[in-house]
């Protein structure tokens, strides 16, 4: 069975062009839907230093991290990753790709030989360059087709998630 590993940010987020306060981040919502569909565990990447609650301040922090190629520290409570051959990796699309906290995770774990199924939430950029960036960061891993969910529709993404999960299962059984 695969494991879901994801990063998500709650608090102020952009939804339908307006800033809204979320008690649960969009990526966490989608991760929960995938976990329920597959009846598997989901582990959250939690920043040691939380991102600002303000949407604009968080956007600015993410931009600075990308420009600086920062590697934010994080906590992750997960069983031994060597027990998993498949990782469903979730993240918001920040500045055209995955957040730098995901880059921190990718550098900390050797994912050689593992299959990664990426999914992201976004407000218009879909997966951006994240698939190519994953391939560069994890040259020994197999990066499969990703799922992009518009963040504003995360709470209503059941059909998209079910379709993607069905594709994952059918693809694995070929």
Automatic annotation (TrEMBL):
<feature type="domain" description="Flavodoxin-like">
    <location>
        <begin position="24"/>
        <end position="165"/>
    </location>
</feature>
<dbReference type="InterPro" id="IPR029039">
    <property type="entry name" value="Flavoprotein-like_sf"/>
</dbReference>
<dbReference type="InterPro" id="IPR008254">
    <property type="entry name" value="Flavodoxin/NO_synth"/>
</dbReference>
<protein>
    <submittedName>
        <fullName>Flavodoxin</fullName>
    </submittedName>
</protein>
<dbReference type="Pfam" id="PF12682">
    <property type="entry name" value="Flavodoxin_4"/>
</dbReference>
């Amino acid at each position: 069975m695969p494991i879901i590993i994801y990063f998500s940010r709650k608090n102020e987020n952009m939804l339908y062009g307006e800033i809204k306060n979320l008690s649960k981040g969009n990526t966490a919502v989608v991760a929960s839907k995938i976990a329920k569909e597959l009846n598997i565990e989901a582990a959250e990447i939690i920043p040691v230093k939380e991102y600002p609650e303000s949407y604009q301040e968080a956007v600015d922090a993410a931009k600075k991290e990308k420009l600086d190629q920062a590697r934010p520290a994080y906590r992750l409570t997960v069983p031994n990753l060597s027990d998993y051959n498949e990782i469903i990796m979730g993240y918001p699309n920040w500045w055209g790709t995955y957040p730098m906290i995901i880059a921190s995770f990718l550098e900390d774990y050797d994912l050689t030989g593992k299959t990664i199924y990426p999914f992201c939430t976004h407000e218009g950029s879909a997966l951006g360059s994240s698939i190519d960036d994953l391939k560069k960061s994890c040259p020994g891993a197999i990066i499969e087709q990703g799922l992009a969910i518009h963040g504003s529709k995360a709470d209503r993404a059941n059909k998209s998630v079910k379709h993607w999960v069905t594709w994952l299962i059918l693809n694995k059984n070929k």
